[in-house]
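Please supply some protein, with C-alpha cells.
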Amino acid sequence: MQNQQRPLYVRDILSILENFAPLSLQESYDNAGLICGNPEAEIHSVLLSTDITEEVINEAVQGGHDLLISHHPLTIQGLKNLRPDSYVKRCLIKAIRHNLNIYSAHTNLDAVLHGVSGRMADKLGLQNRKILQPGGKLFSLCFYTPVSKAEEVRQAVLGVGGGHIGNYSHCSFNQKGEGTFHAEAGSHPYVGVIGTLHREEEIKTEITVPEYLLSKSIETLLKVHPYEEPVWNIVNLDNTNPVTGFGIIGELAEPADSLTFLQQVKKTFRCKVVRHTAICKSQIRKVAVCGGSGAFLTSAAIAQGADIYITGDYKYHDFFQAENRLILTDIGHYESEQFTKEIFYELVTKKISNFAIQFSKVETNPIHYL
C-alpha cells in the first residue's frame, strides 16, 4: 500500500483502475476513460457515483472534490457543441469551469471476472464462479533469450500479467536450444563479434497473453531484453480468455427455495419491485447474473443450466425465452449496478492509504415507482 505523502495525480488513480479493468476491454460503442480533465492534474479528493447527473456534479464541486469516478459515462454519443441545452452539456461545462476531472469505467468494468457482475455474485454468495460468456482473444508470445538473462526477461514479461491459466499464474514453457547470428557492420551485438558467425545457448520462452496485455508485454520484452534485435513472434490462439467476458454463473452453497431466494434477491439489491417469469423451479442452486442490460445472455444462461438468471432491462417479449427452463428475473438496471462504487473504493484504498474518497449521497436512479 502506498502511504499518501507525495502529491497524487489523476493518472495515479487511473493506473489503479485500468490495471483492474483495462480500457481495451470496453465495447466499440463505449466511451469509458477520462471524459473530462487532465491526467497530470493534482488531486486531493475523489467522489464515487454510479451515474453522473447535475446533482452529482454539484455535490462534487461543493464538496471540493477534484475527481469524479462513475460507472456510466456522462455521454457515449459525441457532442457537436457545448451549449447548455442538455444536462450532459451543463455537467461538462460546470466540470470544466471548476477543474473537476471525470472518469468512467463502463463496459471494461463489466468485462472482468471481479467487476460489475462479479460484485453481484459477491452479494449473493455464489461459489465456483466463471464468466457466463467468455470473450477476448489469447495469444502466445514467444521469444529467445541468452541463458544468463532468460530468468530476468521472463519474470519481467510475466510481471505485466500474462501467463495466467485458471488458478495458476506465472505459467510459461521454456526450452533450451542454440541460436545463431552474424553481426553485420553497424550493429552493436550483446554477445559475439561483428563479422563472424556466433552461436549462443538460448532459452525459448512461450507465454500465453490476453489481447489487452499484448502491447504492454511486447513493450516490456523489448525494454528488458539484452539483444539489440530480440527475436520474438506472436501466435493467435483459438482459445477464448476465460477470465474476461460478460456475466457470471456460479452456485449457492446450499440449494434455496425459489420464492425465498427471490425475496432475498429483492432485499439484497434494494429493489422496489422484481419482475420474473413463472417459478418453474422448486429450488435454486445454479445462478447466473449480469449487471445492466443482460437480455443478450439469456441463451447462455439456459445452455449452462442456470436455475435462475438475474439481470436488468428485460423487454416484454424477452421473458418468453424462458420457456419454463429457468426463472428470468429483472431487478432493474440501476439496482444491478449500484455496488460498482464499492469496487472503485476498494481498488483505490487498497493501494493508497490516508486519501479522501467518498460515496456520492445522490440517488441517481431515474426510475421511480408508485
Summary: The longest helix spans residues 211-224. The chain has eleven helices and 19 strands. The longest strand covers residues 197-210.
